[in-house]
Amino acid sequence: MPPASRKAEKPSSRPVDKVAERKAAFDYEREQKRRDLERAKEEAARQKDRERRQQAVDKAQAALDKAEQEHAKRAAAIQAEVEALEKRSQAEKARWDKEKERLEAALRRARG
Questions:
Q1: In a domain, 66, yes or no
Q2: Radius of gyration (Cα) for the chain, nearest Å?
Q3: Taking the chain, what is the end-to-end CA distance rounded to the nearest angstrom?
Q4: Domain encompassing residue 30
Q5: How many CB atoms lie within 10 A of CB 101?
Q6: How many independent structural domains does the chain possess?
Q7: How many angstroms separate the CA atoms of 90 and 48, rounded?
Q8: Is residue 69 part of a domain?
Q9: CA distance 85 to 27
Q10: What phi, psi does 6 have (nearest 5°)?
């Protein structure tokens, strides 16, 4: 058991110092405003950073979109050239087959 000699603490019976109390309240308010202002500045800096990052993302996305469009345009032109060459190749093969057939027939007739 704890010793019974301990007495319960009593609230201070000294008179309340109104000037000190007002000064403490004023100091507290001033510090609170300073902290609020600091938080607002930090949030503004974070917002500015977010906006700067978003602008960088938007710029990079626009560059990517433009490059993709240019690539698609070039790829389509190359594909058109491939198709044109394939068509020319088929036409040349048909021409050659016809010419070869004619020349082989002439050779057969010449032989005999």
A1: yes
A2: 46
A3: 139
A4: 19-85
A5: 10
A6: 1
A7: 62
A8: yes
A9: 86
A10: -70, 135
pLDDT tens-place string over residues 55-83: 999 999 999 999 999 999 999 999 999 99
For residue 106, what are its two tokens?
């002439």
pTM for this one? 0.54
* Gap between the Cα atoms of 19 and 31, Å rounded: 18
Dig out the tokens for 86 from the structure. 């394939």
SS3 112: coil
Q: State both tokens at 64.
A: 């990517």
Which tokens in the block code for residue 69? 């469009």
State both tokens at 4. 């019974």
Tokens of 55: 């602008």
Residue 50 has pLDDT above 80, yes or no: yes
Backbone angles phi, psi at 4, to 5 degrees: -80, 0
